[in-house]
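Structure (tokenized):
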């Protein structure tokens, strides 16, 4: 599946973010990822771990409505917008 981010919401601590995507076929979906630390041989590595992936939606509004219902914290965050 190809596509691109339309909106990104970040938690206030910057360690969780929700993306809303528009796919090349015109459908939308959203995903959530969280920042995690991994220790290996005394070194700390930071990476982003996907923690949720939605189903498909016919439009941006439907995807965003469901995202807000599942993750109410995004209601309080201004999204970064992407043009498409």
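Design, position by position:
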């Amino acid at each position: 599946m190809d596509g691109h981010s339309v909106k990104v919401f970040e938690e206030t601590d910057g360690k969780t973010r929700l993306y809303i995507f528009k796919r090349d076929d015109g459908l939308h979906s959203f995903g959530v990822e969280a920042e995690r630390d991994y220790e290996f041989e005394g070194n700390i590595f930071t990476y982003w771990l996907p923690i949720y992936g939605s189903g498909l939606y016919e439009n941006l509004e439907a995807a965003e409505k469901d995202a807000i219902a599942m993750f109410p914290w995004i209601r309080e965050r201004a999204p970064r917008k992407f043009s498409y």
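Reviewer-requested clarification: The beta strands are 3-10, 16-23, 28-40, 43-53, 80-81. Residues 25 and 60 are 13 Å apart (CA to CA).
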